[in-house]
Amino acid sequence: VQQGWSVHVIEGSAFGAFDKAAPEVIDGVQVEGLEAARLSAWLPRFDHLTATPTLRRMLAASWASQEQAATQGPFDLIEATEFGLLHLPYLQQPDNKIIVQSHAGWGQIGLHERNGGSSLDQILALALETAGMHLVNARHTNAEANARWWQAEADVPVTIIRPCWEPPVCTFADPTGQCVDDVVRVFGRIQAW
């Protein structure tokens, strides 16, 4: 936005869609929620995947999100996460320029999760995530471990882009000299692995 780009965001996934979410502008970014009715309309198109209900819902949300975004496009560049398989619909149009922001895909989580992960849904999701990583224009993550994992799993380059947050100046140090403050910051999900 600061560089003069027009930025549009569809907020939502298989687990988060909105009944009546009016678009809003946040710091110059156009943000709108994934329409629940649009997601519901896409679910029957994936009825052949009823044996994998979460994967079915994720794919329906992905295509619904892409359809909703298309009403605002065309776009010069598309950035989507691999979690929720949100990048897959864009692979159908070869002219799309697609960047995947890798936070940890649902299939990737299932592979590593010790508390009951690796369902059939997640195994198939991992196969789709991995195949998709080969077809996008670029991939990036903010974690070195995630970059190394995708480079090994999919044999593709992954750029590390650090978060823009900077910690506050230290105002109190513990006896070992480590900076201590009274604020807890969480950036992302917490997994068992």
Structure description:
By secondary structure, the protein is α/β, with parallel strands linked by helices. It is globular and about 60 Å long. The model has no long low-confidence stretch (mean pLDDT 86). It is 31% helix and 13% strand. The longest helix is centred in the N-terminal third of the chain and has 18 residues, at 53-70.
Rg on CA atoms, Å = 19 Å
Which structural class should the secondary elements be placed in?
Answer: alpha/beta
Element pattern in H and E: EEEHHEEHHEHE
Distance between the termini: 35 Å
Overall 3D form = globular
Number of helix segments? Answer: 5
According to DSSP, the number of beta strands is 7
Kindly report the oligomeric state of this protein.
single chain
How helical, in percent, are the residues?
25-40%
Give the DSSP E fraction (strand runs of 2 or more residues).
Answer: 5-15%
How are the strands of the biggest sheet laid out side by side?
Answer: 4-5-6-7
Q: Mind describing the biggest β-sheet? A: 4 strands, parallel
Can you tell me the residue ranges where pLDDT is under 50 for at least 5 consecutive residues? none
What value does the average pLDDT take? 86
